[in-house]
Amino acid sequence: MILQQIFDGLTLGIVYALIAVGYSLVFGVLRLVNFAHGATYAFGAHIAMVVIVSANFGLFWGFIASVIVTGLMTMLMDRIALRPLRIKKSKGISALITTIGCSYIIQNTLMIVFGSRSKWFPKIFDYGNFNVGGILVKSTQVGIIAVSVALLLALTYVVHKTKIGLAMRAVQQNSKAASLMGIDVNKVVSFTFFLGGASAAVAGTLISGYYQIVNPQMGFVAGLKAFSAAVLGGIGILHGAVFGGLVVGLAESLAAYYIGGGYRDAVAFIILIAVLIFRPNGLFGKKVIEKV
Amino acid sequence: MPSPILELKNVNTYYGMIHAVKGINMEIEKGEIVALIGSNGAGKSTTLNTIAGLLKPKKGEILYNGKPLVHSSAADIVKMGICLSPEGREVFPDLSVQDNLRLGAFTRKDKAKIAADYEKVYSLFPRLAERKTQVAKTLSGGEQQMLAIGRALMSDPKVLLLDEPSLGLSPNLVMLIFDLIKDIKKLGVTILLVEQNAKMALKTADRAYVLETGRITLEGTGKALLTDDNVRKAYLGNI
User: Fold this and answer.
1) Inter-axis angle of helices A185-211 and A37-49, to 10 degrees?
2) Nearest residue in chain B measured CA to CA from A286
3) Which of A21, A193, B97, B220 is deepest in the core (most CB within 10 A)?
């Protein structure tokens, strides 16, 4: 039975990883926790629902539309609400509050447009169940894992092997020097928000297809858990976010089974607090050296 | 006389609330090394940051080959051929030497020429070639300075702005860096050099300006300023 819980937990965890990576990307470049990320995830799920359920275009186009529209929405959010703060060199806390504000604006917009009730979402990758060595493996889970892993690999490739990825890492390490190299920092930030929004959109679509339910508040708990996953792994570090996501997913699944469903959501945060006491910068985090 | 490659006309820049640069005029001819010396807080770095587009002047004009520069972004200014190697080196600490240099060439698309420029930088700084794959934060101070200059050279600049290249280096390395600056001049790059080490700067430069609390108080050839009484008293420690 434990293997079953582990497998289910990993499925959930890889999706948390996908959301957590979005926090990490934006934090890496801007040193900002984007608290609108959870709402972005819900936004992505709703766009997919419109395309798949209402317009009946199928899953593939649902993903594509959700990725593009959600990515553009987060870029727009940065452009309208966050960039002016950077130009004015306002304190980090202002940007943080702004993202919380944006989170509610997105969530309320979803409620106004779609209503606050939960809505049905079709099961994705539904080709039946298999029994692998005593574990019940749903094809939906296999599909979720495959899409998530592919996307995480793609993101890693972009960040570590492409020119724009090099620019992202440069801005992350020293944005002043990056602009001296002729890098348009605002463009890099926009691109980073797009990647974050896009991965949240995919995660939102996957989870909606797993639980077959969509509602405007779905991003709240998922967002917080993914955030704790990102911090757990060391925020700003991609593989840390992935590892953190898997830990949170596993913990949630095992806790629900062995301790009781009531502890499902709490256990991620218990682990987070425990890890932070011993490793304040997260599992993969490095000590930040103050520049002289 | 040919028109200068870089010209500052009555440039005024505020650094926060401080009026750091108060109406300075400078002319830099193509191919020369010009030094800007002065004590701490005189406005030297502010001047360079203004030229590089990191700070915008409140008043005045900066002309590059006769064309106004002050409305261009820092990124565009690099593309036009002016690159700043900033004070304190500001290399990308967790990137390799190679990636740091790659970022120097970020705005360029001419692949063949970029490849040739890597070789040029590596032959100028053999120490960097030995440490290609090492991350920048593991380099010594002198090596980081070489990397900062090499990175700026990778943008294929017509004008190189050097902010305190000798800061924090041992006397041997200071000599080496100034020798390298002369080598860079031979490659046809015009250099504007900001230095606290006034003696070395004046020895190296063709011409120099003395900046005091945001105003230019003296200008002349490097040699003339080296023997100027006021300069000797204020900046050369009365040797």
Assistant:
1) 60
2) B94
3) A21
Domains, chain A, ranges and CATH?
A: 2-278 (1.10.3470)
Write the pLDDT tens digit of every residue in B110-157.
999 999 999 999 999 999 999 999 999 999 999 999 999 999 999 999
Contact check, Cβ <8 Å, A170/B54: no
Q: Which residues of A touch B83 (CB under 8 A)?
A: 180
Give the tens place of pLDDT for each residue, A35-56: 999 999 999 999 999 999 999 9
Q: Strand ranges (DSSP E) for chain A?
A: 119-120, 129-132, 135-138, 213-214
Q: Give the pTM.
A: 0.91
**Is residue B94 within 8 angstroms of chain A, CB to CB?**
yes
Q: Which residues of chain A are within 8 Å of residue B91 when distances are taken between CB atoms?
A: 174, 177
Residue pair B192/B28 in contact by the 8 Å Cβ criterion: yes
| ipTM metric | 0.89
pLDDT band of A290, cuts 50, 70, 90: very low
| Terminal CA-CA length for chain B | 35
**A-chain residues within 8 Å CB-CB of B72?**
none
**Closest CA in chain A for residue B80:** A182
Q: Which positions ≥6 away from A129 have C-beta within 8 Å?
A: A136, A137, A138, A139
Q: How many CB atoms lie within 10 A of CB A157?
A: 11
Interface A:B, Cβ pairs < 8 A: 66
B225, amino acid identity:
L
Taking the CA of residue B226 and the nearest CA in chain A, the distance in Å comes to 32
Spatial distance between the Cα atoms of B80 and B73, rounded to a whole number of angstroms = 11
